[in-house]
Amino acid sequence: MKKIIWIVIVVLVLIGLWAIILRGKDEVVNNANTTIATTTDNTASGDTTNNNAVSKSATFKSLLSEKGNFECKYEQVDPKFRSTNVIYLSNGKMRAEFRMAPSTGVTIANLIVYDGQYLYAWKEGMATGVRTQPKTIAELPDVIPADMTSAAVYGTSPLNVSYDCHPWATVPSMLVKPAYVKF
């Protein structure tokens, strides 16, 4: 029963975020010339530069299959709530942190880690979570706008939407399931 509740919670959160994003996507200020900057990968033999810049047409799913590391932030402020979300992507792996603070002030945080094989979802502070196994990357939800690299200026949209995606210095411990949560 708890597993079903967790699945329902995760699905509802993702659907809600997807709806919010679609609602605000057309109202975000677009910058036609924006691309994600070149990323740097550290290897045992030294530093190398990965010149795979991600174009304006990149999607969340396409970034998962890209080589490189990205941090994508999405924020929306409404009189009733504030939603601050961060998605970390690294060579086909992902961590997503969805934080919603209603006007009551109690922050709700749902966390997801995709290790390339399993998708782990849990609520911050809880000892149990749900593990699923998507068959393909296409089964992962679209949780951020299709135009990942568009620059948005906070406060320019009637919905107060802001998002950006940029290179990220990978923290490997963020891309593995937490030991304190039972899946």
Walk me through what this model shows.
The strands form 2 sheets. This protein has a 7-stranded antiparallel sheet, covered by helices on one side. A hairpin with a 5-residue loop joins strand 7 (119-123) and strand 8 (129-132). It has helices at 2-25, 60-65, and strands at residues 39-43, 46-50, 69-77, 81-90, 93-102, 108-114, 119-123, 129-132, 161-167. It is globular and about 40 Å long. The chain is of the alpha+beta class and 183 residues long. The protein has one domain (2-175).
Question: How would you sum up this structure in a few lines?
Answer:
With 183 residues, the protein is an alpha+beta fold. The chain contains 2 helices and 9 strands, in the order αββαβββββββ.
Q: In total, how many domains does the architecture comprise?
A: 1
Q: Provide a count of the helices.
A: 2
Tally of DSSP β-strands: 9
As a whole number of angstroms, the C-alpha radius of gyration is 17 Å
Order of helices and strands: HEEHEEEEEEE
Assign a percent range to the helix content. 10-25%
- Spans where pLDDT lies below 50 across 5 or more residues: 21-58, 143-157
Average pLDDT score: 67
